[in-house]
Amino acid sequence: MSASEAAEGEAGERVRRIVHVDMDAFYASVEQRDNPSFRGKPVAVGGIKRGVVAAASYEARRFGVRSAIPSSRALRLCPELIFVPPRFDVYRAISQQIREIFALYTPLIEPLSLDEAYLDLTDHLEGRTATRIAQEIRRRIFETTGLTASAGVSYNKFLAKMASDQRKPNGLFVIPPEAGRDFVAGLPIGKFHGIGPATAARMEEHGIRTGADLRRQSLEFLTARFGKSGCYYWNVSRGIDHREVKPDRIRKSIGAETTFFSDLRDLAQASAELQPLAEKVWRHAQKAEDRGRTVTLKVKYGDFRQITRARSLPRPVHDAAEMLEIAQELLAPVFADPHGVRLLGVTLSGLEGAALREEEGPRQLGLFDRD
Q1: How far apart are the C-alpha atoms of 10 and 239, rounded to whole Å?
Q2: Which DSSP symbol is given to 52?
Q3: Pick from 164, 174, 184, 168: which is nearest to 118 by CA?
Q4: Which of 18, 22, 252, 323 has its CA 20 to 30 A from that of 274?
Q5: What is the chain's pLDDT, residue by residue, as a tens digit (371 residues)?
Q6: What Cα–Cα distance (Å) separates residue 275 from each residue in 50, 247, 256, 279, 309?
Q7: Does the entry feature the keyword Metal-binding, yes or no (predicted)?
Q8: What is the signed CA dihedral for 171, 103, 2, 188, rounded to 10 degrees?
Q9: Ordered structural domains, the chain, with CATH
Q10: Which residues are designated catalytic?
């Protein structure tokens, strides 16, 4: 942001320097890096027989292959698509290398996933600009991992996130304070971070297609139609986002799911398939010293319809067996379907982590507050 970085905001607030770093097609790029025969070819990380695409290379994206679409559809779009099973241990190790690079520049790092994070550089410039640091980070990532990253630089999280998408792959884009409002005005609603396809469709029904259209709506209009999110939409349409970069984001849930090679049509078999999921979730909860009160069951049917059912307890779930019992009870009334069950998932939420408990001091057994 160069000269603008030292300026004061219109309301007298100090201008922040926020960077959003996003790895380019991370999982697929790792596979292309580690297997030279995949380079320049359409690659998808995921299961070829069942399941969905977890990541797609840029070569695959040219055919319309995207993450989260069914593998069968991806193959129809791109018959030459190369499917590679995911290697999450490798991705996590590389992600740790990348975070160590971030830590060279600021302690204020908010990871969003293995492949992206916000960095607050406001008090850690040391005579440099945020743009220059973003360039250095991208260079270090490539030198260390052989992978490319895109970055966005701006004065708040929303615009930094939007900026990182502008010159992908392997690009850098800066939105200075004086350009924020105009940038948002020309942004299609479907591109807004925090506005999904369903909400975008509802907005278009009201003639809201761009940031400029959104800005013309009153706060009362937006909150009446979109609830608490209306305030967020009102602010970001004006280039305003006061959210801080939080280095210690509290994990809200722990989950596991599996997609089956053949659709399940037997309740006993489906109930048995929930056991390894519940045990996996419980192992992760124990490792993180988390306790949770809400068990959620996810069911995806053979025709890709998806439902969730949840049950909350007045105290934390005791163990994996209790979690499994709850999940099985939630499954029984929703299992019968002519299309069979394609996917099952179990999630534990309403978490109370060890760090949170230590900060609050000892609790009387049986008394737990809501999050």
Answers
A1: 12
A2: B
A3: 164
A4: 252
A5: 543 443 334 444 679 999 999 999 999 999 999 999 999 999 999 877 667 888 999 999 999 999 888 888 999 999 999 999 999 889 999 999 999 999 999 999 999 888 999 999 999 998 999 999 999 999 999 999 999 999 999 999 999 999 999 999 999 999 999 999 999 999 999 999 989 888 999 999 999 999 999 999 999 999 999 998 999 999 999 999 999 999 866 667 889 988 888 899 999 999 999 999 999 999 888 877 788 999 999 999 998 899 999 999 989 999 999 999 999 999 999 998 899 999 999 999 988 754 333 333 333 222 222 22
A6: 21, 34, 11, 6, 17
A7: yes
A8: 50
A9: 2-24+89-180 (3.30.70.270), 35-85 (3.40.1170.60), 188-236 (1.10.150.20), 253-360 (3.30.1490.100)
A10: 116
Chain-centre distance for alpha carbon 298: 18
Query: Tokens 């099973």 identify what position?
Result: 85
- Distance between CA 55 and CA 74 in Å, rounded? 11
182 belongs to an annotated ligand binding site? no
Q: Which residue has the tokens 């392997």?
A: 170
pTM of the full structure: 0.71
**CA angle centred on 40, ends 36 and 42, rounded to 5°:** 105
* Cis-peptide into 314, omega within 30 deg: no
115 in a labelled binding site = yes
Q: Is the dihedral of CA 213, 215, 217, 219 positive or negative?
A: positive
